[in-house]
Design brief:
single chain, alpha/beta, 6-stranded parallel beta sheet, 3-stranded mixed beta sheet
């Protein structure tokens, strides 16, 4: 078993820490706000006051935070950043959804400090991490990938090494962009069916028997029709990821569908749905 530090205890990071504890690892945690650490402390995790102090004895350090800015703070802050406190033999694992440019910059900083670094964003949400079924999109040195797999297997069941640093994040942003287009398209279709007076459940069941129906559509449509919008992937986070995707592309003209999907999620945020599940965008079409 390993000494592992988890930095960032949001919906995903806290569950990752729980999975690691259940697997028998020694886990130290840090979070920007202290309240999130209480449940993990009761499960046996050690709570540290700063990222730097949290990594002092760590063999592996996993970060799961909101965005580039948060990632920069926890790793590179001059006084409290994790990188300055890591042992030479430790491995840094960045699982947040970031931009490829920042991941490459962070990788350069890790290299300067002789710290092994793995880019490891995940596909999947709260249900998947709770059951150890996350899919990892890995970028970095193959040797570092192999070194990290015993740890990642506590949280995931599929591991895709897609290339060098930055390419894992590209794969994650592409995955989320496809998801966003599917979510917004399905919301429009369900709104269309309801306004037309059709039995939406019946029509969607028929569509599910055709070759155009994607595997995730059952979950998405079920959430929309039952109006179960408990956050699995909140609107504000998928909108952030679409913004990163468009930033990477350099022009929204190169991705009109992704840009349009982002516009739907921005509208949803304006309507007070930022913290609701991404499927809550159906409410925009229920109002028409």
């Amino acid at each position: 078993m390993s000494n592992i530090t988890v930095l960032g205890l949001g919906a995903m990071g806290s569950r990752m820490a729980t999975r690691l504890l259940t697997a028998g690892h020694s886990v130290t945690v840090w979070n920007r706000t202290g309240q999130a650490t209480e449940a993990l402390a009761s499960q046996g995790a050690t709570v540290a006051p700063t990222p730097k102090s949290a990594v002092a004895d760590a063999e592996f350090v996993i970060a799961m935070v909101r965005d580039d800015a948060a990632s920069r703070r926890i790793w590179l802050d001059e006084e409290q950043g994790a990188l300055s406190g890591m042992a030479a033999a430790a491995v840094a694992i960045e699982s947040s959804t970031l931009t490829p440019g920042w991941v490459k910059t962070l990788g350069s900083q890790m290299q300067r400090h002789d710290i092994a670094f793995l880019e490891a964003p995940v596909s999947g949400s709260r249900v998947q991490v709770d059951s150890g079924q996350l899919a990892y999109l890995l970028g970095g040195d193959p040797f570092v990938v192999e070194r990290c797999l015993p740890v990642l297997k506590a949280m995931g069941s599929a591991f895709h090494h897609v290339g060098e640093l930055g390419e894992g994040t590209l794969a994650k942003l592409a995955t989320n962009a496809l998801m966003a287009v599917q979510v917004t398209g399905l919301a429009e279709i369900i709104g269309f069916l309801k306004r037309s007076g059709a039995d939406a459940n019946r029509v969607l069941s028929a569509m599910a028997g055709t070759s155009v129906w994607p595997a995730v559509a059952g979950y998405l449509s079920g959430s929309m029709l039952s109006e179960n919008f408990a956050p699995q992937f909140p609107v504000e986070l998928i909108e952030k990821d679409l913004g990163y995707t468009l930033q990477e592309m350099g022009s929204s003209q190169l991705a009109p569908m992704i840009d349009a999907a982002r516009g739907v999620f921005l509208h949803a945020i304006d309507e007070g749905l930022a913290e609701s599940n991404m499927t809550s965008v159906i409410r925009l079409y229920d109002k028409l």
